[in-house]
Amino acid sequence: MVDALIVPKGQLDILSKREIEVLQTSSNNLYRTLFRNCALAVLSTGADSDDGHELLAAHADFEIEVMSSVRGVKLKVSNAPANAFVGGEIISGIRSHLFSVLRDIVFLQDQVEIWQQRGESITDMVFKTLRHARALKARRRPNLVVCWGGHSINKVEYDYSKEVGYRLGLRELNICTGCGIGAMKGPMKGAAIAHAKQRIDNARYIGITEPGIIASEAPNAVVNELIIMPDIEKRLEAFIRLGHGIVVFPGGAGTAEEILYILGVLLNEKNKNIRVPLIFTGPEESKTYFEQMDEFIGKTIGDEARKLYKIIVNDPIGVAQAMHKDMRKVYKNRRKLDDAFFYNWSLTIEEQFQQAFEPTHENMANLNLNKNQSPAALAADLRRAFSGIVAGNVKPNGIEAIQKHGPYQLDGDNEIMNALDALLASFVEQRRMKLSGEYTPCYTLKS
Fold it and tell me: Looking at per-residue confidence, does 305 or 41 come out higher?
């Protein structure tokens, strides 16, 4: 364990005395625990466990304090994980991530509360959060590929995701992921090699996370822009507003949640003329995974949703070529719509995809998993169901709730529940639900 005093470099290094006072007050009161836990996750980058509850328990004596001086703000850490330091000095990338946590968890919170009081839209709040993080780059053609996929994947799938990232990087495309390991790290690592070959010195590896899941998806070492959105819904909106195309690798419940989110949004009639390239891909060994996912989508939200994506198996070059070609179409589409390249304002995202969902046992049991609604509305509640399963699998609060009250209860139409049961069973069989330890389901299905 290490005790250290850490100064910022590149962000939050020029603050007024009033701003420092706000940071100190907030970090010592309402947001203290949240800030501490997210900071611990960042300092634990490289840990093999995906159990946030386990991480917090293993470092119960970790402390962090915001300090002020005439030169600005500093962070004092006590009993910090040693892997974040070399020769007593914090690793530069981890330092950057640590101050991103301070920026997004503490510094931005007062501003978020002001936005809410003013009644600003969630889309505007997402925009301002990304702008505050300096993630919005004006006057750049579309080139940011969002990569989704599981943290619990096998080596063949990881190597494939890295190869896809490499091929995307050779075409000078940047990468945005959920910032964690597995299919979130692979594309970034592959792209980093390709960008080095292309002598690109301003490559972007953006990691977008949220407080409840950061402990299980601590930023991987390649991430050079870390953004912590207030909740999962704003995180998902940030992905599709900021990115220009989406590649989905094999994953578990979290990946299913992301797929249902984007499909639910694109099923909206108002979005039919907006170009959002969506490709599902994996190695030959993962072909069955995508067949199962495609079948699940067809049996639940319908065949119209299946028209919104391509499935490309075992062809990294084909994926990169298709996405590179689609970037030109996105460029023309944004020009036609008179929309910004750095933020997709044209997309209509309904409230059911924006409002934060708290996966309590009561809320999970009350989800409408029936076909007596539009496909988009069903996608929204199926998305919430998978969000709850993610919480029960890896989030500290979710794990504690399951330990106290037992598994979540999900109920709905026979056809939907059977499809859900088959998909979740395949995730368990393929060990996609959890990286460390044996998996015990946090849900039961009724029909």
Answer: 305
| Global confidence as pTM | 0.90
Residue 47's contacts (CB-CB under 8 Å, 6 or more residues apart) are 55, 81, 83, 218
Q: Which residues contact 16 (CB under 8 A, 6 or more apart)?
A: none
**Domain ranges for the chain:** 2-107, 119-447
Mean pLDDT of 371-375: 93
The one-character DSSP state at 219 is P
- Closest to 211 in 3D by CA, of 361, 375, 344, 398: 398
Give the per-residue pLDDT at 54: 67
Residue 410 in contact with residue 417, Cβ under 8 Å?
A: yes
Eight-class DSSP state of 183: G
pLDDT > 90 in the chain, percent: 60
In angstroms, the first-to-last Cα distance of the chain is 50
Residue 39 half-sphere exposure, CB side, CA atoms within 13 Å?
27
Alpha helix (H) residue ranges in 307-429: 316-337, 361-365, 375-394, 396-405, 414-429
CATH fold, domain 119-447, is Rossmann fold (3.40.50)
Summarize pLDDT for 237-284 with one digit per residue, the tens. Answer: 999 999 999 999 999 999 999 999 999 999 999 999 999 999 999 999
Strands 225-228 and 205-209 come out as parallel
List helix spans (H) across 47-101: 52-58, 92-101
The CATH classification number of 2-107 equals: 3.30.1850.10
